[in-house]
Amino acid sequence: MKYWWLEKYTELEVRMLPELFLDIQFFLTMPKNYLQIYKKIESLPISTLSEEEMCIVLYYISVTKNVKNNHISQIIERLLLVPDTSLPISDYNLSEIIHEIYGLKEKKAMVDQMDSNNVAACYSCLNVFYVDQITSANRKGQCLCPFCGKNKLYFDNELIPMNYSFLLHSKIFYGITELGCDFSKLKKIIKKGITIMKKSSSKGINTSKKRNHFLEKYQKKLIKSEDESQIIKKIYDSLFVTERNGDYETTLIIDWEGQLNLFEISYLIILSCTLALGNFFYLKHISLIIENDQLRNQTEKVLRMLIKS
Ligand SMILES: [Zn+2]
Asked: Which of 1, 79, 145, 296 is most buried as measured by Cβ atoms within 10 A of its Cβ?
């Protein structure tokens, strides 16, 4: 399912609302004019709204915290029926990924190419969708995203990866973080902000509560594309706990025994940390303790390449 993160809210209780609102704001990116769109659709029955419109209503509720009616439950129910649109993880290595991201800006999705393509991806809101969902374009003839209204689209014929981590990396690269950091600033931030350590060099750190057991299940099976957003969100959430406490630094322990997915896991770890450092106000430093030598080497390699890219 595309909106897997809404699943835990099917039995919605009032105490869950703050977390739901945070999740909505993490996963949904709105068009600039979403308030105007909301005003047009606010009195329509939920059952008649499109996926994009339901996202707008949900986002509006999360911002205004106005939950008088049962709209939320109805929307969650309908969005959970939307099938997963994520595409397979690309088998590109990091330098190929970075090369493609560099070239993205030149590759605009033009209206006259729509007929020869099936799928479009947006690196502003990270949606992947069929081209027939595109209904508007700007004056230059560039297609606009049906979810966020931006022209950050590319088509499948370009043969550029369209998986979640690629889209997220592109989003970060083009400076679409909460703090408005562009990638050159972020490179400095992650250079200063992420330290990778062996356990032996980290004595004295109280690490009892910061182990990431959710990664365990990926040690023995291959990561699929729908896992990417879950892994990133879970690491981001564990970092968010520190942010909410107003802490300047935190330590994450990555328990890892498997030999599978070393590149994917290290890439996702660094991307989640980058996202947190780019979006959080207080958190400035993340220590990663990785006992598995191979995973640690791989993670150091990913970090080095991102810093110099
Ligand atoms: Zn979009």
From this structure: 145
